[in-house]
Amino acid sequence: MGFHTFDAAGADNLEDDSRFRYGSREELLGLLGAHREQSLLDLGSGTGFYTRELAPHVGTVYALDVQDAMGVRHREEGLVGNVHLVTGVADALPFAADALDAAYSTMTFHEYATEAALAELARVLRPGGRLVTVDWSRTGPGDAGPPRDERFGLGRALELQTDAGLVVERAADRVETFVSVSRAP
Asked: Residue 2: inside a domain, yes or no?
């Protein structure tokens, strides 16, 4: 786990509004404690589907994706003025310590989650900064998303976060997904 990469050839699927059934703009904004001065990291931003939804409500969004092709597609879909595209990996984030107010991932945790990546997130989040995760659950029926053996169970996801020094504030298994909110100490 933690090494799957979404096939950029399927990028059209990332622009489907039905994705909101797994995490809405309002839910994410609330979980992030969004505000106009907030610096936010979108982990695995893909085509910018969620980035475009959240950007008008925060100060700056860094849209991180491992694939250059996703950044190209993100530009084609429309790049919001306060969004900065970043090509890179979660286990080597190009930010100073304590640089970000919050980070989130929607359906990408299973693609980047390693001990090193969670340690990097803990490093770049300011004290009290939030990490919001919505991802496919290993216990879900598997009707959508990656194969179940590529998914994390909620317990393992929380273990990775706490081992990195993050403090879990909220976590829940849902039908097909899980959600968690952690803070940097």
From this structure: no
Instruction: Compute, in degrees rounded to 10, the torsion defined by CA atoms 45, 100, 162, 44.
Output: 10
Q: How many folded domains does the chain comprise?
A: 1
pLDDT tens digits for 95-107? 999 999 999 999 9
User: Global pTM?
Assistant: 0.89
> What pLDDT is recorded for position 156?
97
Angle at 80 between CA 76 and CA 86, to 5 degrees: 75
Mean pLDDT, rounded, for 70-83: 82
Q: Is the residue at 103 inside a domain?
A: yes
| Residue ranges making up the domain that contains 146 | 8-183
| 151 within a domain of the structure (yes/no) | yes
Distances 148 to 151, 153, 172 between C-alpha atoms, Å: 5, 10, 18
Please give the average per-residue pLDDT across 167-181, as a whole number: 96
User: Residue 14: which residues within 8 A CB-CB, separation 6 or more?
Assistant: 6, 46, 47, 49
Helix, strand or coil for residue 103?
strand
Q: What is the largest CA-CA distance in the chain?
A: 39
Residues 51/80, Cβ–Cβ less than 8 Å: yes
3-state secondary structure of 115: helix
